[in-house]
Amino acid sequence: MKKINYIEGSPRKDRSHSMKIAKEYLDKVKENNSGIEIKSIDPWSLDLPEFNGDMMNAKYAVIGGVDPSENEKNAWGKVTKIFDEFADADHYLFSVPMWNFNIPYKLKHYIDIVTQPGLSWSYNPDDGYKGLMSGRTATVIYASGDGYSDGTGFESYDLQKPYVELWLTFLGFDKIEKVVIDRTLFSPEDAEKAASDVALKLANVHSL
Ligand SMILES: Cc1cc2nc3c(=O)[nH]c(=O)nc-3n(C[C@H](O)[C@H](O)[C@H](O)COP(=O)(O)O)c2cc1C
């Protein structure tokens, strides 16, 4: 059975524009793919461990190939538990609000936890970096209060889409699709209609 992990980047839930479009997308995917398994992962309600000294030392122990201390092992255990849940899917749906031109800090915290050597990426001097999440695809729904598309003059302010796309590419995702819902503070109905059309089209072409 195919699995989708839905990462809820917005804390606004019922009032979130990106999550409203995500729900429409998932409803359509469910309609088209009986038996599909969808799991929601909410970084806002997860007990994400602090990325503190032990956590960093555990990460560098993995990179350096040295034995971790007991504290580092414990810290790494928390990371792998969250990563295993993240990795257990074929397709990923992200709802991503723009916050101060970037992404919300809880989503970034989640990304910092799952983006780990030996889990989601690897490095060796001969081949360089390699993403370990290949075989997977992602659909990302980006919401922003204002608009940053080509011709607005504010393209360079948008660190949200380039960052998430770069991250998923680094992890080795095979395919990354996007739905943009912008100007939610100014013309929410128009923004939702346009994004909904794109999201439903994408949902219809997915046979999972
Ligand atoms: C803390 C915070 C920072 C924000 N920063 C920006 C921003 O830099 N640019 C922008 O266009 N909108 C910004 N917004 C507006 C949100 O991007 C907008 O409300 C969007 O619809 C949020 O996604 P959501 O509806 O899925 O929660 C910000 C909102 C919050 C709460």
Any chance you could write out the topology, listing elements then pairs?
Elements: E1 3-8, H1 17-32, E2 37-41, H2 53-64, H3 70-87, E3 91-97, H4 105-114, E4 121-124, E5 128-131, E6 137-143, H5 160-170, E7 175-181, H6 188-205
Helix pairs in contact: 1-6, 2-3
The structure holds flavin mononucleotide.
Flavin mononucleotide binds next to helix 1 and strand 3.
Distance linking N and C termini: 9 Å
As for the number of domains, it is 1
Helix/strand-derived category reads: alpha/beta
CATH superfamily, by name, is Flavodoxin domain
Tell me about this structure.
The chain is of the alpha/beta class and 208 residues long. The chain has a single domain (3-205), classed as 3-Layer(aba) Sandwich (Rossmann fold), CATH 3.40.50.360. The chain has six helices and seven strands; from the N terminus they run βαβααβαβββαβα. The protein has helices spanning 17-32, 53-64, 70-87, 105-114, 160-170, 188-205; strands spanning 3-8, 37-41, 91-97, 121-124, 128-131, 137-143, 175-181. Strands 2-1-3-6-7 form a five-stranded parallel beta sheet, sandwiched between helices. Strands 4-5 form a two-stranded antiparallel ribbon. Helix 5 (160-170) links the parallel strand 6 and strand 7 (175-181). Helix 2 (53-64) crosses helix 3 (70-87). The longest helix is centred in the middle third of the chain and has 18 residues, at 70-87. The model has no long low-confidence stretch (mean pLDDT 95). The structure holds flavin mononucleotide (FMN). Flavin mononucleotide (FMN) is lined by residues 10, 12, 16-19, 95, 97-101, 143-146, 184-185. Flavin mononucleotide binds at residues 10, 12, 16-19, 95, 97-101, 143-146, 184-185.
